[in-house]
Amino acid sequence: MIEYNLRFPATKSMLTTLVRNSFKAIDDGMYETSGDHDYSNHSYLSMRNSILHCKQNPLLTEIKFASPSRGKLVDSKEMNVEEIAMTMENAGAIGISILAQPYLFNGSIGNILKARKYVTVPILMKDIVVSDIQIKAAKKAGADCILLIKTVFDNNMSEGGLETLAEYAKKIGLEVILETHDEIEFDDAVKINNRTIKPFSLIGINNRNLGTLEVNLDTTVRILSENSKGNNTVISESGIRGPSDIIKLKSAGADAFLIGTTLMENSKEMAHKIKELIEN
């Protein structure tokens, strides 16, 4: 595993750095899984259905060993992916998000392969997707869902267009979460999904500013108060620390909640924390 490092010098916008790191990871062969188990024929598990059928607070929990804003969160030698994934599922998570990006996040496509062998809930490959190479790798590793970041595509930072990559993902049997960050992006996402064929299974609202990395839960509250989500299922991402945050976001109209850093920083209390957030 590649330890926490900034492969490229930080730029004014962290998003530029993250995108450049994705292309570097592709060039370095980080998405190749030859010799490992091939889950290409894995019948995908629906993240959206798992959210809609959840009778408590739908919690999508995230496995990441490091982050650009916090550095190393947990030593993978002390707690491995398989152990974390099983703990999350047993505690009641409706799905598991796993970082595949090696640079800054210490992620790996191999971590998805490891978790897939041990859990029965849907898996999201969390990454800064810029190419169909990453999408193919997600399917082969056993992921059920990928995340596309609207800002990346709006700024022409990818190898393919947003809807082109979303359609490709659906074609090979993956659900798509489209991540948005402001009212304009969210409104565009809803409009695109109002068409006959919905390209996105879920719409995410990231409370983290990808330029500054600052987090504000009011991002979700503001966007949902000013925009109709229609019949879309919305996930609020980042910054969730306790039950009061879930209550706030749920009242605003969020349907599900993604939490990672809080759990990884307190890995020994992970199961308890998940149950606390789910049952609130």
Automatic annotation (TrEMBL):
Enzyme class: lyase
Biological process, per Gene Ontology: L-tryptophan biosynthetic process
CDD domains named among the record's database cross-references: IGPS
Keyword line: Amino-acid biosynthesis, Aromatic amino acid biosynthesis, Decarboxylase, Lyase, Tryptophan biosynthesis
Coiled-coil annotated spans: none
The keyword Metal-binding is annotated on this UniProt entry: no
Span of the signal peptide: none
InterPro entries reported in the protein's UniProt record: Aldolase_TIM (IPR013785), Indole-3-glycerol_P_synth (IPR045186), Indole-3-glycerol_P_synth_dom (IPR013798), RibuloseP-bd_barrel (IPR011060)
EC number(s) from the headed UniProt entry: 4.1.1.48
GO molecular-function terms, A-Z: indole-3-glycerol-phosphate synthase activity; phosphoribosylanthranilate isomerase activity
Domain Indole-3-glycerol phosphate synthase, first and last residues per copy: 49-277
A Pfam family matched in the record: IGPS
Catalytic activity: 1-(2-carboxyphenylamino)-1-deoxy-D-ribulose 5-phosphate + H(+) = (1S,2R)-1-C-(indol-3-yl)glycerol 3-phosphate + CO2 + H2O
Pathway membership, UniProt: Amino-acid biosynthesis; L-tryptophan biosynthesis; L-tryptophan from chorismate: step 4/5
Record PANTHER family: INDOLE-3-GLYCEROL-PHOSPHATE SYNTHASE, TRYPTOPHAN BIOSYNTHESIS PROTEIN
Name this protein carries in UniProt: indole-3-glycerol-phosphate synthase
UniProt organism field: Candidatus Nitrosocosmicus arcticus
Lineage: Archaea, Nitrososphaerota, Nitrososphaeria, Nitrososphaerales, Nitrososphaeraceae
Gene behind this protein: trpC
